[in-house]
Amino acid sequence: MARIALIVFGIIVLLVGGLVAAASFIPAETYKAEIEKAVKQQTGRQLRIEGDVGITFLPALGVEAEAVRFANAEWGGKPDMVSMDAMQVSLKILPLLSGNVELDRFVLVRPEIHLEVNRQGTPNWQFKPAQEAAEAPASPSTDTGGDETPSEGGAALNDIRLGEIAIENGVASYKDARSGAAYEITEINTVLNLPSLDRQMVFDGSAVWNGDTIELDLTADRPRALIAGGETPFTLSLATPKITSGFDGTVTQADTPKLAGTMNVDIPSVRALAAWAGSPLAEGDGFGPFTIKGTVSATPEVFDFSDAALSFDEMEGKGALNVNLKGQRPKLTGKLDLETINTNVYMAGGASASGGDAPASGTPGGNAGGGSAASSSASGWSDAPIDMSGLKAVDADLALSAQKILVQNITIGESVLGVKLNGGVLTADLSKLALYEGAGKAKVTLNGAQATPALNATFDISNIAAYPLLRDAAEFERLEGTGAMNVSVQTRGKSQKQMISALSGNGSVNFANGAIKGINVAQLLRNVLSGALSGWNAGGTQDTDFSELGGTFTIQNGILSNQDFLLLSPLARVSGAGTVNLPQQTLSYRVEPKLAATLEGQGGDAGAKGIEVPIIIEGPWANPKFRPDLKAILSDPEGAVNTIKDLKDGGGKKLLEGLIGKPAGDGESGGDSGGETSGDKPNVEDAIKGLFGR
């Protein structure tokens, strides 16, 4: 037996030695010609090996070729589809006898790969074999006897061992003539290590894309299971200046590869990432930092996060999220609980992100004299462009809950809403809405799909605090109270100014137990009867308390019209009608204060006996002019006198005290410091005649 083995070994040595000797006598040009001919037959393209070719047989079958070039399609933009400085391949021979493949070395040195698609949609990697290859007779060595099935008796593949598998300083590019898309990756350096199909595979790679270095590392614990379509533990790490991501779980190599495990994604700026990837978003403040981590089940096109924690543009939340990349735009579906939803970051030219942080309590703050209103009037509405095109970046169907929602300067409290975003149209349906101490429901639609943004909104709120709402919504700081609001408005425009000018809609408001800041109706009457006055200080420094205040309104092209204004308070009934020009921030109003000798307020008689002194209010709402409607007053002065004289139970005295102040010695000074303080009680008839200049 030993003798037989020795003979077999001797034969092998002779055969190998013969191959080595034969190889040394075969000119290298012969190898080149045969290789180039075979490639031409199979692809129809020319392969040129312009450098040296070396072949080794022991201890491994090796080929090294220098200056290799593979021709591009005839219509290609570059002469070569693939070129490289050198290609080195080394395959161990002896392991093949036992059914194992050990690729000792496969290295591409400075390869350049150029992929293209022409206007007809034909890729340059679609090859057409040469005609002579199709007409050539079948080689006897490859004839399988027609339709006869090839023998399956060959040795099965037991294992694969890969040594140095690498790309050194490569370049890859892609161009699509149909869309104009063009990409290039440079400085490609990769190393793949596979000791065995039953041992961990490790891949490390780096490349440069659009000026940024991308680093990719991955491991697969059981490559054999992966090849067989099974599952294996898998890790992945991606790091670039624009995005970092990590995954730890399992991968299944089925018809559709699947990942399952934990994943995290950290994007410093979605806007910068989109620009880096070749799909820049419109300029604006939104689409900044984004992070998400949680349990994920994913395919190449669908990511399903559960137990997810995310942060987007500093809006943080928890819940479940599905990201679908199949369509024209990514689509987000899920249920999230968020701390804050800030719509302002997606409305360039709108309020600042912090603009909604004003306190949402019902306690007045700042200058009751209307400083904010003056500032608004001085500056007018903003002409800065409002750009909602960022809404077209993704589609969404989300069930959200939020502790705070910011829209322009308005702060909405704890809310539950459904959000649908499709093609740049955002619809927020608030089934639960907390707004400035009130509660109700609302629906808001922002349309960023068109060149001119549009807004539709409906609100139905009760128990709302008037002061902070009007301060934040219109910079108006003159009204306090608790009430109800039913509003439906719509507008469109490319700036805040255009939107205010195009505003239309209708609604009703009703407030109770409040005050008009800085205006005393009685003092206003006394002051305005002495001549036209300007500014809210015409009403003095005191307030007018009321039990009820409200009315209905319509808006057309930014002009608010109200015909049924009514205020009820002790000693005063005020009705009115007029318009508010929102674009110009001006008022044109006629109010009819009726001073009445009754302390009944809310629910009292709006037609109680008293004296009416109609007042015209006109001009900028920050600094309006007040003047009496003399024609109405002088039309019946005797009637006014008789009305006062007819009041019972000291009503006339109370009314006069409201108009001209309490007499000295009656205790506290009534009205204001400008009231009469005569020691004698006023004569009703003389006082009224004097008041009206008679």
UniProtKB/TrEMBL annotation:
Domain of life the protein comes from:
Bacteria
The UniProt annotation puts the region (Disordered) at 129-155, 353-376, 657-694
| Pfam families assigned to the protein according to its UniProt record, in alphabetical order | AsmA
List, as start-end ranges, the regions of compositional bias called Low complexity. 129-141, 353-362
Task: List, alphabetically, the InterPro entries matched.
Answer: AsmA, AsmA-related
Single biological process term from Gene Ontology: regulation of protein targeting to membrane
Q: Which residues form the signal peptide?
A: none
Instruction: List, for all copies, the residue spans of the domain called AsmA.
Output: 3-190, 322-565
Q: Which GO terms describe its cellular component?
A: plasma membrane
What are the Basic and acidic residues biased-composition ranges?
A: 678-688
Q: Where is the composition biased (Gly residues)?
A: 363-372, 667-677
Protein name in UniProt: AsmA family protein
- Species of origin reads Tepidicaulis marinus
